[in-house]
Amino acid sequence: MKKLMFLALLITATTVKAQFGPEPDFDAKYATELVKAGTVAPDFKMKTIDGKTFKLSQLKGKTVVLDFWASWCPDCRKDAPEVVRMYKEYAPQGVEFVGVSMDTDVAAWKKACEQYGITYTQASELKKFKETDIAKAYGVKWIPSMVVIDEDGKVALSTVLTYKVDKYLKELRPTGYQSVRERVTIDGDHGKLQAVIQKPVLRQGEQCPMVVFCHGFGGTKDGPLFELITDSLQKHGIASVRFDFNAHGESEGKFEDMTVPNEIEDAKKVVEYVRDLRYVSKVALVGHSQGGVVAAMTAGELAPDIAAVALMAPAAVLRDDAIRGSTFGKMYNPLDPPEYVELWGNQRLGRKYIQTAFSLPIYETAAKYQGPALIIHGNGDRVVPYTYGERFHQLWKGSEYVLQEYFDHGFSQNIYRTTDYVSEFLIRTLK
Hints:
By secondary structure, this protein is of the alpha/beta class. It has helices at residues 2-6, 13-19, 27-30, 74-90, 106-116, 133-138, 162-172, 224-235, 260-275, 290-302, 317-324, 351-358, 362-366, 387-395, 415-430; strands at 45-48, 53-55, 64-69, 96-101, 121-124, 145-149, 155-159, 181-188, 191-198, 208-214, 239-243, 280-288, 306-312, 326-327, 330-331, 340-342, 348-350, 373-378, 400-404. α8 (224-235) runs parallel beside α15 and α9 (260-275) packs across α10. 47% of the residues are buried.
Protein backbone atom coordinates (compact mmCIF):
# COMPACT_ATOMS: atom_id res chain seq x y z
CA MET A 1 0.00 0.00 0.00
CA LYS A 2 1.14 3.52 -0.82
CA LYS A 3 0.55 4.76 2.71
CA LEU A 4 3.11 2.31 4.04
CA MET A 5 5.74 4.23 2.10
CA PHE A 6 4.93 7.33 4.11
CA LEU A 7 5.81 5.62 7.39
CA ALA A 8 9.49 5.86 6.55
CA LEU A 9 9.16 9.62 6.81
CA LEU A 10 8.08 9.58 10.44
CA ILE A 11 11.52 10.66 11.60
CA THR A 12 15.02 10.47 10.20
CA ALA A 13 16.79 7.13 10.17
CA THR A 14 19.30 8.26 12.76
CA THR A 15 16.52 9.32 15.10
CA VAL A 16 14.89 5.94 14.64
CA LYS A 17 18.09 4.29 15.83
CA ALA A 18 18.29 6.51 18.88
CA GLN A 19 14.63 6.66 19.91
CA PHE A 20 12.43 4.07 18.30
CA GLY A 21 13.76 0.55 18.78
CA PRO A 22 11.57 -2.42 17.84
CA GLU A 23 8.94 -3.44 20.35
CA PRO A 24 8.07 -7.04 21.32
CA ASP A 25 5.48 -8.55 19.00
CA PHE A 26 3.01 -10.88 20.76
CA ASP A 27 2.32 -12.61 17.45
CA ALA A 28 5.79 -14.12 17.70
CA LYS A 29 4.61 -15.94 20.82
CA TYR A 30 0.90 -16.53 20.40
CA ALA A 31 0.19 -16.54 16.64
CA THR A 32 2.88 -18.94 15.47
CA GLU A 33 0.43 -21.67 14.44
CA LEU A 34 -2.31 -19.43 13.01
CA VAL A 35 -3.06 -20.01 9.33
CA LYS A 36 -0.45 -18.15 7.28
CA ALA A 37 -1.01 -15.19 4.98
CA GLY A 38 -1.34 -16.21 1.34
CA THR A 39 -3.02 -19.54 1.99
CA VAL A 40 -6.61 -20.23 0.97
CA ALA A 41 -8.87 -19.67 3.98
CA PRO A 42 -10.45 -23.00 5.05
CA ASP A 43 -14.17 -22.99 4.46
CA PHE A 44 -16.41 -23.93 7.37
CA LYS A 45 -20.06 -24.31 8.29
CA MET A 46 -21.57 -23.86 11.74
CA LYS A 47 -24.65 -22.63 13.56
CA THR A 48 -25.13 -18.95 14.36
CA ILE A 49 -26.19 -17.59 17.72
CA ASP A 50 -29.82 -17.51 16.53
CA GLY A 51 -29.74 -21.08 15.22
CA LYS A 52 -29.22 -20.43 11.52
CA THR A 53 -26.53 -22.05 9.39
CA PHE A 54 -23.51 -19.94 8.41
CA LYS A 55 -20.97 -20.89 5.76
CA LEU A 56 -17.82 -18.84 5.12
CA SER A 57 -18.03 -19.36 1.37
CA GLN A 58 -21.28 -17.38 1.27
CA LEU A 59 -19.13 -14.26 1.79
CA LYS A 60 -16.98 -15.00 -1.26
CA GLY A 61 -15.71 -11.83 -2.93
CA LYS A 62 -15.73 -9.78 0.28
CA THR A 63 -13.10 -8.86 2.83
CA VAL A 64 -13.88 -10.88 5.98
CA VAL A 65 -12.59 -10.50 9.54
CA LEU A 66 -12.83 -13.64 11.67
CA ASP A 67 -12.75 -12.86 15.38
CA PHE A 68 -11.98 -15.95 17.49
CA TRP A 69 -13.16 -15.29 21.03
CA ALA A 70 -15.24 -16.52 23.98
CA SER A 71 -17.37 -14.88 26.66
CA TRP A 72 -15.30 -16.60 29.37
CA CYS A 73 -11.99 -15.18 28.04
CA PRO A 74 -10.78 -12.06 29.96
CA ASP A 75 -8.58 -10.83 27.09
CA CYS A 76 -11.47 -11.29 24.65
CA ARG A 77 -13.76 -9.19 26.82
CA LYS A 78 -11.05 -6.56 27.01
CA ASP A 79 -10.74 -6.43 23.21
CA ALA A 80 -14.48 -6.61 22.49
CA PRO A 81 -15.16 -2.84 22.52
CA GLU A 82 -12.31 -2.29 20.04
CA VAL A 83 -13.62 -5.02 17.71
CA VAL A 84 -17.09 -3.47 17.87
CA ARG A 85 -15.60 -0.07 17.06
CA MET A 86 -13.82 -1.50 14.02
CA TYR A 87 -17.03 -3.18 12.88
CA LYS A 88 -18.91 0.12 13.04
CA GLU A 89 -16.16 1.87 11.10
CA TYR A 90 -15.45 -0.68 8.39
CA ALA A 91 -18.78 -2.50 7.86
CA PRO A 92 -20.16 0.49 5.88
CA GLN A 93 -17.12 0.05 3.60
CA GLY A 94 -18.16 -3.52 2.82
CA VAL A 95 -16.01 -5.41 5.33
CA GLU A 96 -17.76 -8.42 6.89
CA PHE A 97 -17.12 -9.33 10.54
CA VAL A 98 -17.77 -12.84 11.83
CA GLY A 99 -17.35 -13.77 15.48
CA VAL A 100 -16.28 -17.39 15.96
CA SER A 101 -17.09 -18.19 19.58
CA MET A 102 -15.42 -20.92 21.64
CA ASP A 103 -18.35 -20.88 24.06
CA THR A 104 -20.25 -23.98 25.15
CA ASP A 105 -22.85 -22.03 27.16
CA VAL A 106 -25.29 -20.33 24.76
CA ALA A 107 -26.77 -18.13 27.49
CA ALA A 108 -23.36 -16.75 28.50
CA TRP A 109 -22.50 -16.21 24.84
CA LYS A 110 -25.70 -14.26 24.19
CA LYS A 111 -25.27 -12.23 27.37
CA ALA A 112 -21.74 -11.15 26.36
CA CYS A 113 -22.95 -10.13 22.90
CA GLU A 114 -25.67 -7.99 24.46
CA GLN A 115 -23.25 -6.50 26.99
CA TYR A 116 -20.73 -5.37 24.36
CA GLY A 117 -23.21 -4.48 21.63
CA ILE A 118 -21.99 -7.20 19.26
CA THR A 119 -24.44 -7.29 16.36
CA TYR A 120 -22.36 -8.83 13.57
CA THR A 121 -22.62 -12.54 12.69
CA GLN A 122 -21.80 -14.90 15.54
CA ALA A 123 -21.19 -18.61 15.03
CA SER A 124 -19.97 -21.49 17.19
CA GLU A 125 -19.54 -25.26 17.31
CA LEU A 126 -20.51 -25.12 21.00
CA LYS A 127 -17.56 -27.34 21.84
CA LYS A 128 -14.59 -26.87 24.12
CA PHE A 129 -11.91 -24.66 22.55
CA LYS A 130 -9.33 -27.42 21.96
CA GLU A 131 -11.94 -29.78 20.55
CA THR A 132 -13.31 -27.51 17.84
CA ASP A 133 -12.69 -28.25 14.17
CA ILE A 134 -12.36 -24.53 13.43
CA ALA A 135 -9.47 -24.09 15.88
CA LYS A 136 -7.63 -26.97 14.23
CA ALA A 137 -8.34 -25.70 10.71
CA TYR A 138 -7.09 -22.17 11.48
CA GLY A 139 -4.33 -23.08 13.94
CA VAL A 140 -5.92 -21.13 16.78
CA LYS A 141 -4.04 -21.87 19.99
CA TRP A 142 -4.82 -18.58 21.75
CA ILE A 143 -7.82 -16.31 22.00
CA PRO A 144 -8.49 -13.63 21.11
CA SER A 145 -7.10 -14.23 17.63
CA MET A 146 -8.15 -12.57 14.37
CA VAL A 147 -7.82 -13.62 10.75
CA VAL A 148 -8.47 -11.29 7.81
CA ILE A 149 -9.51 -12.92 4.54
CA ASP A 150 -9.22 -10.93 1.32
CA GLU A 151 -11.69 -10.75 -1.56
CA ASP A 152 -9.96 -13.67 -3.29
CA GLY A 153 -10.61 -15.93 -0.31
CA LYS A 154 -6.99 -15.96 0.83
CA VAL A 155 -5.68 -15.17 4.30
CA ALA A 156 -4.30 -11.63 4.33
CA LEU A 157 -3.45 -11.33 8.03
CA SER A 158 -3.34 -13.58 11.10
CA THR A 159 -2.75 -11.93 14.47
CA VAL A 160 -3.63 -11.79 18.16
CA LEU A 161 -3.43 -7.97 18.12
CA THR A 162 -6.49 -5.91 17.18
CA TYR A 163 -4.44 -2.87 16.15
CA LYS A 164 -2.88 -4.84 13.30
CA VAL A 165 -6.34 -5.57 11.90
CA ASP A 166 -7.31 -1.91 12.26
CA LYS A 167 -4.14 -0.86 10.45
CA TYR A 168 -4.72 -3.34 7.61
CA LEU A 169 -8.32 -2.21 7.10
CA LYS A 170 -7.36 1.45 7.25
CA GLU A 171 -4.79 0.98 4.49
CA LEU A 172 -7.10 -1.21 2.43
CA ARG A 173 -9.18 1.65 1.11
CA PRO A 174 -7.16 4.89 1.02
CA THR A 175 -9.31 7.99 0.64
CA GLY A 176 -7.32 9.39 -2.25
CA TYR A 177 -7.71 12.85 -0.73
CA GLN A 178 -5.20 15.35 -2.07
CA SER A 179 -4.43 18.37 0.08
CA VAL A 180 -3.50 21.86 -1.08
CA ARG A 181 -0.42 23.24 0.63
CA GLU A 182 1.33 26.59 0.75
CA ARG A 183 4.99 26.95 1.72
CA VAL A 184 5.86 29.99 3.84
CA THR A 185 8.90 31.36 5.66
CA ILE A 186 8.55 32.69 9.22
CA ASP A 187 11.10 34.62 11.29
CA GLY A 188 12.11 32.37 14.19
CA ASP A 189 14.28 32.79 17.26
CA HIS A 190 17.43 31.53 15.51
CA GLY A 191 16.80 32.34 11.86
CA LYS A 192 14.21 31.63 9.22
CA LEU A 193 11.72 28.82 9.80
CA GLN A 194 10.33 26.86 6.88
CA ALA A 195 6.65 26.01 7.20
CA VAL A 196 3.74 24.49 5.30
CA ILE A 197 0.21 25.85 5.67
CA GLN A 198 -2.85 23.83 4.71
CA LYS A 199 -6.26 25.43 4.71
CA PRO A 200 -9.75 24.68 3.43
CA VAL A 201 -11.36 26.67 0.63
CA LEU A 202 -12.91 29.71 2.30
CA ARG A 203 -15.39 32.26 1.08
CA GLN A 204 -14.40 35.91 1.18
CA GLY A 205 -14.34 37.08 4.79
CA GLU A 206 -14.80 33.55 6.18
CA GLN A 207 -12.60 32.41 9.06
CA CYS A 208 -11.47 29.02 10.37
CA PRO A 209 -9.39 27.62 13.25
CA MET A 210 -5.63 27.08 12.79
CA VAL A 211 -3.59 24.27 14.39
CA VAL A 212 0.16 24.69 14.94
CA PHE A 213 2.21 21.46 14.91
CA CYS A 214 5.45 21.06 16.88
CA HIS A 215 7.71 18.12 15.98
CA GLY A 216 10.09 16.27 18.26
CA PHE A 217 13.84 16.29 18.93
CA GLY A 218 15.71 15.61 15.68
CA GLY A 219 12.47 15.38 13.69
CA THR A 220 10.92 17.54 11.00
CA LYS A 221 7.57 18.97 9.99
CA ASP A 222 7.11 16.19 7.41
CA GLY A 223 5.90 12.63 7.81
CA PRO A 224 2.61 10.81 8.35
CA LEU A 225 2.22 11.49 12.07
CA PHE A 226 1.35 15.13 11.35
CA GLU A 227 0.30 14.90 7.70
CA LEU A 228 -2.51 12.42 8.34
CA ILE A 229 -3.93 14.80 10.95
CA THR A 230 -3.56 17.93 8.81
CA ASP A 231 -5.27 16.28 5.85
CA SER A 232 -8.19 15.25 8.06
CA LEU A 233 -8.45 18.72 9.59
CA GLN A 234 -8.49 20.39 6.18
CA LYS A 235 -11.39 18.19 5.07
CA HIS A 236 -13.30 19.42 8.14
CA GLY A 237 -12.66 23.12 7.58
CA ILE A 238 -9.64 23.55 9.87
CA ALA A 239 -6.31 25.01 8.74
CA SER A 240 -2.89 23.94 9.99
CA VAL A 241 0.75 24.92 9.91
CA ARG A 242 3.68 22.51 10.22
CA PHE A 243 7.15 24.00 10.60
CA ASP A 244 10.74 22.94 11.23
CA PHE A 245 12.21 24.22 14.48
CA ASN A 246 15.56 26.03 14.29
CA ALA A 247 18.39 23.71 13.20
CA HIS A 248 15.91 21.07 12.02
CA GLY A 249 14.80 20.12 8.54
CA GLU A 250 14.83 23.09 6.18
CA SER A 251 15.03 25.82 8.84
CA GLU A 252 18.09 27.88 9.67
CA GLY A 253 20.26 27.53 12.76
CA LYS A 254 22.92 25.28 14.28
CA PHE A 255 21.80 22.14 16.09
CA GLU A 256 24.35 22.84 18.79
CA ASP A 257 22.50 26.08 19.62
CA MET A 258 19.06 24.46 19.88
CA THR A 259 17.32 24.51 23.30
CA VAL A 260 13.78 23.93 24.48
CA PRO A 261 13.39 27.63 25.43
CA ASN A 262 14.37 28.81 21.95
CA GLU A 263 12.02 26.25 20.42
CA ILE A 264 9.26 27.77 22.57
CA GLU A 265 10.19 31.15 21.11
CA ASP A 266 9.98 29.62 17.62
CA ALA A 267 6.51 28.28 18.41
CA LYS A 268 5.35 31.64 19.77
CA LYS A 269 6.54 33.39 16.61
CA VAL A 270 4.63 30.89 14.47
CA VAL A 271 1.51 31.45 16.57
CA GLU A 272 1.94 35.22 16.18
CA TYR A 273 2.34 34.80 12.41
CA VAL A 274 -0.85 32.77 11.93
CA ARG A 275 -2.90 34.92 14.30
CA ASP A 276 -2.19 37.85 11.98
CA LEU A 277 -3.77 35.97 9.05
CA ARG A 278 -7.22 37.42 8.49
CA TYR A 279 -8.87 34.06 7.97
CA VAL A 280 -7.71 32.59 11.31
CA SER A 281 -10.35 32.64 14.06
CA LYS A 282 -8.52 30.76 16.83
CA VAL A 283 -5.30 28.82 17.36
CA ALA A 284 -4.59 25.36 18.79
CA LEU A 285 -1.32 23.53 19.42
CA VAL A 286 -0.24 19.94 18.78
CA GLY A 287 3.13 18.51 19.79
CA HIS A 288 4.91 15.18 19.67
CA SER A 289 7.73 14.16 22.05
CA GLN A 290 9.91 17.24 22.77
CA GLY A 291 7.44 19.16 20.63
CA GLY A 292 4.81 18.11 23.15
CA VAL A 293 6.76 19.86 25.90
CA VAL A 294 7.13 22.93 23.68
CA ALA A 295 3.40 22.93 22.87
CA ALA A 296 2.42 22.56 26.54
CA MET A 297 4.72 25.34 27.75
CA THR A 298 3.79 27.62 24.85
CA ALA A 299 0.12 27.12 25.72
CA GLY A 300 0.92 28.06 29.31
CA GLU A 301 2.72 31.23 28.26
CA LEU A 302 0.02 32.27 25.78
CA ALA A 303 -3.06 31.22 27.79
CA PRO A 304 -5.95 32.01 27.37
CA ASP A 305 -5.24 32.71 23.68
CA ILE A 306 -4.85 29.00 22.85
CA ALA A 307 -8.11 27.21 22.06
CA ALA A 308 -6.94 23.59 22.44
CA VAL A 309 -3.82 21.48 22.99
CA ALA A 310 -3.02 17.89 21.98
CA LEU A 311 0.13 16.19 23.22
CA MET A 312 1.49 12.96 21.79
CA ALA A 313 4.02 11.20 24.04
CA PRO A 314 5.16 14.51 25.62
CA ALA A 315 8.86 14.17 26.52
CA ALA A 316 8.91 15.86 29.93
CA VAL A 317 11.51 13.25 30.81
CA LEU A 318 14.07 15.52 29.13
CA ARG A 319 14.47 17.51 32.36
CA ASP A 320 15.06 14.37 34.42
CA ASP A 321 17.50 13.15 31.77
CA ALA A 322 19.49 16.37 32.09
CA ILE A 323 19.53 16.11 35.89
CA ARG A 324 20.77 12.51 35.64
CA GLY A 325 23.41 13.54 33.10
CA SER A 326 22.21 11.15 30.41
CA THR A 327 20.55 12.20 27.15
CA PHE A 328 19.83 9.45 24.60
CA GLY A 329 22.33 7.26 26.41
CA LYS A 330 25.17 9.81 26.25
CA MET A 331 26.63 10.45 29.72
CA TYR A 332 27.97 13.76 31.02
CA ASN A 333 28.41 15.73 34.23
CA PRO A 334 25.11 17.64 34.56
CA LEU A 335 26.65 20.15 36.99
CA ASP A 336 29.48 20.96 34.61
CA PRO A 337 28.37 19.84 31.14
CA PRO A 338 30.86 19.87 28.25
CA GLU A 339 30.67 22.36 25.40
CA TYR A 340 28.72 19.76 23.47
CA VAL A 341 27.74 16.08 23.55
CA GLU A 342 28.23 14.00 20.42
CA LEU A 343 24.98 12.33 19.37
CA TRP A 344 24.17 10.27 16.27
CA GLY A 345 24.63 11.46 12.69
CA ASN A 346 27.34 13.98 13.65
CA GLN A 347 24.80 15.98 15.65
CA ARG A 348 26.03 17.86 18.71
CA LEU A 349 23.91 18.61 21.74
CA GLY A 350 25.07 21.96 23.11
CA ARG A 351 25.87 22.82 26.70
CA LYS A 352 23.07 25.37 26.80
CA TYR A 353 20.48 22.69 25.97
CA ILE A 354 21.58 20.70 29.04
CA GLN A 355 21.79 23.75 31.30
CA THR A 356 18.32 25.04 30.36
CA ALA A 357 16.75 21.56 30.49
CA PHE A 358 18.21 21.02 34.00
CA SER A 359 15.87 23.59 35.53
CA LEU A 360 13.14 23.81 32.89
CA PRO A 361 9.78 24.64 34.58
CA ILE A 362 7.79 22.31 32.36
CA TYR A 363 4.75 21.57 34.47
CA GLU A 364 4.78 24.91 36.29
CA THR A 365 4.52 26.78 32.97
CA ALA A 366 2.08 24.35 31.38
CA ALA A 367 -0.24 24.65 34.41
CA LYS A 368 -1.14 28.20 33.36
CA TYR A 369 -3.14 26.67 30.52
CA GLN A 370 -6.43 25.10 31.61
CA GLY A 371 -8.35 24.80 28.34
CA PRO A 372 -9.40 21.73 26.34
CA ALA A 373 -6.58 19.20 26.09
CA LEU A 374 -5.85 15.68 24.88
CA ILE A 375 -2.85 13.63 25.98
CA ILE A 376 -2.11 10.39 24.15
CA HIS A 377 0.69 8.00 25.12
CA GLY A 378 1.70 4.37 24.69
CA ASN A 379 2.50 2.13 27.63
CA GLY A 380 5.18 0.48 25.48
CA ASP A 381 7.07 3.78 25.13
CA ARG A 382 10.66 3.12 26.22
CA VAL A 383 11.87 6.64 25.40
CA VAL A 384 9.33 8.57 27.48
CA PRO A 385 7.46 6.51 30.09
CA TYR A 386 3.71 7.03 29.89
CA THR A 387 3.67 8.40 33.45
CA TYR A 388 4.94 11.70 32.04
CA GLY A 389 1.82 11.94 29.91
CA GLU A 390 -0.33 11.04 32.90
CA ARG A 391 1.10 13.96 34.84
CA PHE A 392 -0.10 16.42 32.18
CA HIS A 393 -3.54 14.82 32.43
CA GLN A 394 -3.49 15.33 36.21
CA LEU A 395 -2.24 18.88 35.75
CA TRP A 396 -4.99 19.89 33.32
CA LYS A 397 -8.34 19.30 34.97
CA GLY A 398 -10.91 18.06 32.51
CA SER A 399 -8.32 16.97 29.95
CA GLU A 400 -8.78 13.76 27.95
CA TYR A 401 -6.22 10.97 28.29
CA VAL A 402 -5.72 8.00 25.98
CA LEU A 403 -3.27 5.26 26.93
CA GLN A 404 -2.58 2.99 23.96
CA GLU A 405 -1.61 -0.50 25.02
CA TYR A 406 1.72 -1.79 23.64
CA PHE A 407 2.31 1.39 21.58
CA ASP A 408 5.83 2.80 21.36
CA HIS A 409 7.09 6.39 21.25
CA GLY A 410 6.36 6.81 17.56
CA PHE A 411 2.98 4.99 17.71
CA SER A 412 4.31 2.69 14.99
CA GLN A 413 1.96 -0.15 15.93
CA ASN A 414 -0.92 1.72 14.27
CA ILE A 415 -0.20 5.33 13.47
CA TYR A 416 -3.66 5.75 11.94
CA ARG A 417 -5.44 5.00 15.20
CA THR A 418 -3.32 7.60 16.98
CA THR A 419 -3.87 10.29 14.35
CA ASP A 420 -7.61 9.53 14.36
CA TYR A 421 -7.76 10.24 18.11
CA VAL A 422 -6.03 13.60 17.66
CA SER A 423 -8.06 14.60 14.59
CA GLU A 424 -11.36 13.72 16.23
CA PHE A 425 -10.47 15.70 19.36
CA LEU A 426 -9.50 18.82 17.39
CA ILE A 427 -12.52 18.68 15.09
CA ARG A 428 -14.88 18.22 18.02
CA THR A 429 -13.23 20.98 20.06
CA LEU A 430 -12.56 23.64 17.43
CA LYS A 431 -15.60 23.43 15.17
